[in-house]
Design brief:
The protein is built from six helices and three strands; from the N terminus they run H-E-H-H-H-E-E-H-H. With about 160 residues, it is an alpha+beta fold. The protein has a three-stranded antiparallel β-sheet. Helix 1 packs across helix 2 and helix 3 crosses helix 4. The longest helix has 27 residues.
Length: about 160
Amino acid sequence: MRHNKNFNHLSRKKAHRDALLANMTISLIRHKRIFTTLAKAKALRMYAEPLINRAKNDTMGNRRLVFSYLQNKEAVTELFREISQKIADRPGGYTRILKTGNRLGDNAKTCFIELVDYNENMLKEKAEKKAGRTRRSRKSAAAAPAAEAPAAEAPAAEEAKAE
């Protein structure tokens, strides 16, 4: 029986596909974001996320297992030192895929795949959204600084008179 044995073969034999996914995972760990096709990004997510999850528990066994997949000491070291600290409290979903349109030559769907905790732009947007105002509060927010300004000047004026 072949139940649940389907995945994207990416038009490659097993050895070629494993080498492709390992190299893409190494690039993702090093650069935190890579540009690729949508099919390869989805296959990479299935390959890389279990390896990233292993990095949470820094044991010799986990390091050896991850190294057996990646065959790159620098990538394994960076994964277990820096990336594991950022993902320590995240229960899963370590990568994000952002679609970018179609490629000009062959019209393939392209995208970015990135590590979630390393996108500074989205982290800034979250902080800005918390500080954002609604339409209703614009008038009251604009009036509040105007009301505070004379109040702030008044104690300074009283101090000047006292001298």
